[in-house]
Amino acid sequence: MKYLFIAMLLFSNQIKSQTFKLQEYINNNQVRFGVWHISPVVSDTILLVPPKDVIHVKMADSLKERIKNIRNEEWLFLLQQPEMDWTINLILYELFEKEALQFRVIKTKDLWEKTYKKEDIDYWKKKLNSSNN
Question: 38: helix, coil or strand?
Answer without folding.
Answer: strand
